[in-house]
């Protein structure tokens, strides 16, 4: 800002000082300009918009003072457009490729093994099909054992079906379902051999099944498959999920250990740089080339190369050069949320470090400002992708960051010194505890984030501090005055868990019962959070089908549950046995119930009306619940015609239609039983739920039909009338 403006407007003076403190030196600015121009070029591609962006650059380049800047911007914009066009062409080639369908013998290289994602699906690069060379597009591989690691060459026979899908950040043209493995040849590449061995060592050392061990694996190598969906959601809602998306801090810890091991060989700068590059390549293999790791590794390699050439490289220049190089090589990276968050978080960290430079005590200010700057930097991406951002994220990160460093270091040392394993697990458990507590904090939308940033800025500036404090108090009063999502009257909520059942009974006293939990624990956890549920007096597993109880296994370990009810006459299933085991591990009493069992949940009377006896069908043996508090609701699980005919005559005000509206329901029973409201709980499915004839019966009965598929959560008060 000009001197006159800075004198007249103190805020402009403060901004000017801040910018001087934050902005890097000129060479680094050029690197950042190149990165920004490349990203813009990749984004717009060789389109009318792209060439329109070149016009102002050409005009500005006519001025001598700005010629260098505009030349850099123009060149890298064009290069980015070329890279973006190439990335688009690769995707289109995959989408338009002709992949044969049928039984084939396929030879392929494993580019992502089954342990690289939460779905257990590998990705292969074809080399031969039915004995003939075939340079086809990459394929998803279903049924490949986790012991077959990246870099291996596999010969397998199975069913190949075409169909474009995405596995992590990879577009594949079809899926090979393996029937028989004929040959496996592990990679002989040293980086793959060492990297795969280290990954195996981490997974076996911390494979005990404890929550804390799952977190340590995530911290060390980014593998979150052993972290439960509830724990992952807690980390996300606390703003801590980035710690298990391996990034710069993990690379730093690994490289320190690598330098210690290779110290005797690191005599000359150039040889040290080569060893550093080898270490980075190994770590990229260990973490299965997460975009954030690739960014951090290349950013680390830039100063190593600079040191070997005698060229100093500061962090800003390293960031700019790394982003530019990566986007020029693979424009696809720009579409990766992990890459976007990694770049923006790194920029935020560098801003925070610069702002804390002249403040004392510096370590306190650095921790605080780095955390806040990083959170502000990633806020736009988080809001677009997830729709909300936790208010307590800066505080949670401030508390957890040193614990994460400790858990990561101790976890790494545990690979060599087994006695440190319990200590590492204890620190990891402390991190999960902090996430459990802070995940209950407010989640801010766009308006909330903007208001928080503006308020913080006003408080930070001495001139506007009184206004900022007043604004902060107003925000606190508004948040405190918001009504609780817990209902003030007895309520039944049919939760939207996709294709499945999960029904919640809530009493104004704060007590709650959950009947079934759908198939996905993460979806169930988010649904319960929407209704402010943190404790459940009773969880009912009506029967053993996955779409009713698969979500309950993790819930019993993550929520405070009073009792688990199961059917006395249930035929049982492996999945139901897992639910019971999870209850026993957490010392949750398991109660076998049948018709006649009753309880009071505050003002809600709950009665078990089925099963009446032992049935051949597990569906007929479902626990059926009648709940009433003014109005009544029948929650019958998946009972079918035989059990329906044997049930005593009932006429509830609200009926949860059995078996998601399946044709297995007796239509006469349905016509006699349905009351004012019928709720269909279902999602997208291949079973034809709900059956049109069942829907027709409900329509002829003049019943109000509601569904989770169309409405989401269906909330019905058990007081008043229709």
UniProtKB/TrEMBL annotation:
GO terms for cellular component: plasma membrane. Keywords: Cell membrane, Membrane, Transmembrane, Transmembrane helix. It is found in: Cell membrane. The keyword Transmembrane applies. NCBIfam families: ComEC_N-term. It is a multi-pass membrane protein. Gene3D superfamilies: Ribonuclease Z/Hydroxyacylglutathione hydrolase-like. The chain crosses the membrane at residues 30-59, 71-93, 240-261, 273-289, 309-330, 337-357, 363-386, 398-420, 440-460. SMART domains: Lactamase_B. Residues 499-660 form the Metallo-beta-lactamase domain. It comes from hydrothermal vent metagenome. This is DNA internalization-related competence protein ComEC/Rec2. InterPro entries: ComA-like_MBL, ComEC_N, Competence_DNA_uptake, Metallo-B-lactamas, RibonucZ/Hydroxyglut_hydro. CDD domains: ComA-like_MBL-fold (cd07731).
């Amino acid at each position: 800002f000009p001197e006159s403006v800075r004198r007249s407007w103190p805020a402009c003076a403060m901004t000017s000082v801040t910018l001087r403190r934050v902005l890097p030196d000129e060479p680094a600015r050029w690197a950042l300009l190149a990165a920004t121009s490349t990203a813009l070029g990749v984004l717009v591609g060789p389109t009318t918009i792209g060439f329109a962006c070149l016009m102002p650059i050409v005009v500005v380049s006519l001025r001598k003072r700005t010629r260098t800047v505009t030349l850099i911007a123009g060149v890298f914009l064009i290069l980015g457009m070329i890279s973006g066009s190439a990335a688009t062409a690769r995707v289109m080639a995959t989408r338009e490729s002709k992949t044969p369908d049928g039984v084939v013998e396929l030879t392929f290289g494993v580019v992502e093994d089954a342990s690289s994602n939460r779905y257990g699906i590998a990705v292969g690069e074809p080399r031969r099909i039915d004995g003939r060379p075939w340079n086809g597009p990459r394929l998803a591989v279903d049924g490949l054992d986790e012991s077959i690691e990246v870099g291996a060459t596999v010969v397998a026979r199975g069913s190949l079906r075409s169909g474009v899908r995405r596995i992590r950040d990879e577009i594949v043209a079809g899926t090979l379902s393996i029937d028989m493995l004929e040959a496996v040849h592990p990679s002989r590449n040293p980086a793959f051999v060492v990297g795969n061995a280290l990954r195996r060592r981490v997974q076996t050392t911390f494979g005990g099944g404890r929550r804390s061990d799952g977190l340590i694996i995530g911290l060390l190598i980014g593998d979150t498959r052993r972290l439960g969906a509830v724990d992952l959601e807690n980390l996300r809602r606390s703003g801590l999920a980035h710690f298990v998306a391996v990034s710069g801090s993990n690379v730093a810890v690994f490289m320190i250990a690598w330098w210690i091991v290779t110290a005797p060989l690191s005599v000359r700068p150039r040889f040290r740089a080569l060893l550093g590059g080898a270490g980075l390549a190994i770590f990229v293999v260990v973490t299965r080339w997460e975009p954030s790791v690739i960014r951090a590794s290349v950013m680390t390699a830039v100063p190593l190369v600079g040191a070997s050439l005698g060229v100093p490289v500061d962090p800003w220049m390293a960031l700019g050069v790394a982003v530019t190089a990566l986007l020029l090589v693979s424009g696809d990276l720009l579409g990766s949320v992990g890459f976007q968050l990694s770049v923006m978080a790194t920029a935020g960290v560098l801003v925070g470090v610069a702002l804390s430079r002249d403040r004392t005590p510096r370590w306190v200010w650095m921790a605080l400002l780095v955390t806040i700057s990083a959170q502000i930097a990633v806020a736009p991406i988080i809001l677009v992708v997830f729709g909300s951002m936790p208010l307590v994220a800066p505080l949670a990160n401030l508390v957890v960051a040193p614990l994460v460093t400790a858990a990561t270091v101790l976890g790494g040392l545990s690979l060599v010194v087994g006695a440190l394993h319990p200590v590492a697990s204890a620190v990891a458990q402390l991190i999960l505890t902090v996430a459990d507590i802070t995940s209950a904090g407010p989640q801010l939308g766009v308006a909330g984030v903007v208001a928080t940033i503006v308020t913080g800025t006003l408080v930070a500036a001495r001139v506007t501090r009184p206004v900022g404090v007043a604004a902060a108090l107003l925000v606190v009063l508004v948040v405190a005055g918001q009504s609780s999502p817990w209902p003030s009257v007895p309520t039944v909520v049919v939760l939207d868990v996709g294709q499945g059942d999960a029904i919640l009974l809530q009493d104004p006293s704060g007590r709650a019962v959950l009947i079934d939990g759908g198939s996905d624990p993460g979806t169930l956890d988010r649904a319960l959070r929407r209704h402010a549920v943190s404790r459940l007096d009773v969880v009912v597993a009506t029967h053993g089908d996955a779409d009713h109880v698969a979500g309950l296994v993790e819930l019993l370990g993550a929520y405070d549950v009073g009792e688990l009810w199961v059917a006395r006459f249930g035929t049982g299933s492996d999945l139901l046995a897992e639910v019971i085991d999870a209850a026993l591990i957490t010392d949750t009493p398991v109660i076998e119930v049948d018709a006649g069992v009753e309880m009071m949940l505050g003002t809600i009377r709950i009665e078990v009306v089925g099963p009446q006896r032992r049935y051949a069908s597990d569906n007929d043996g479902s626990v059926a619940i009648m709940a009433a508090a003014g109005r009544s609701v029948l929650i019958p699980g998946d009972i079918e015609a035989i059990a329906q005919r044997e049930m005593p005559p009932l006429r509830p005000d609200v009926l949860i239609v059995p078996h998601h509206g399946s044709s297995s329901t007796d239509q006469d029973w349905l016509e006699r039983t349905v009351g004012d409201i019928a709720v269909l709980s279902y999602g997208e499915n291949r079973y034809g739920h709900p059956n049109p004839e069942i829907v027709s019966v409900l329509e002829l009965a003049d019943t109000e039909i509601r569904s989770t598929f169309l409405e989401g959560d269906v909330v019905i008060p058990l007081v008043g009338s229709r």
